[in-house]
Amino acid sequence: MDDFACRDDAVCRDSCCLAGICQFGLWPGAQAVSVDVRAGRPVIRDEPALYVVKEGCLKVKPETPDATWVDFRVPGESLGLQGVYYGSPEREIAWATVDTRLCKIPYTNVRRIADAAPGRFATLFKMLAHDASRAHALIARTEKSADARLAEFLLDLAVRMRVPEGRRLKLNMRRRDIAHHLMIAPETLSRALLRLSDKQLITVDRKWIRICRPLTLLRLSGIDRQSAGACRLPAKRSYDRPLEQARLA
Prior knowledge:
Layout: E1 2-3, H1 10-15, E2 33-37, E3 49-55, E4 58-62, E5 71-73, E6 78-79, H2 83-86, E7 92-96, E8 100-106, H3 107-116, H4 118-141, H5 146-160, E9 168-170, H6 175-182, H7 186-198, E10 202-205, E11 208-211, H8 214-221, H9 225-231, H10 241-248
Antiparallel strand pairs: 1-2, 2-8, 3-6, 3-8, 4-5, 4-7, 9-11, 10-11
Helix pairs in contact: 3-4, 5-7, 5-8, 6-7
């Protein structure tokens, strides 16, 4: 681990979940360190700390023997946020799906700095509320079809990774893990990808996905307008209008 400075780093400045409460993603006095985790290796949590993904991707799941459900953390997202309040990490384990770099800030430093500026606690509460909202959305997703689950996952991931409209999205996780995340069989996921591709909603090139018709994909996902606005999903484009006109006809 090395001393970590990120004042000129675009990921820290624009994507970090702490960007609203520190300068360019690093709190002054936080004594943050950089942690590199190789693909397939676990995150060694040797002390109570808040981790933020700087590069790469983490696979996270509950620390129970029978747990099959997984979630992902992409650049700018945190691991161990609840422990800031409880003083010890959540009962979850995390692996790097690709070579990953993390920013690590010990809980004691986070609490000390937040205590010095109450407004920072408000931002931490917003982050906790966002995590709770995501957990609720994941539960609600189980009531949808495989195609709808996949559509919502791709749109959500594109927003979280700040992928510009029309650009390709790279899936930095195995398809088996995505299937577990969506709570469907890997074979079902493969068929859903093929159906969305056949409908020209997406293009698939191994790990690369291009969302071709975001509004149509949004309707398929079943995301309500309020959630769509909060997620800043892609704006309407001309290639979705013919389908809308056909439905109105």
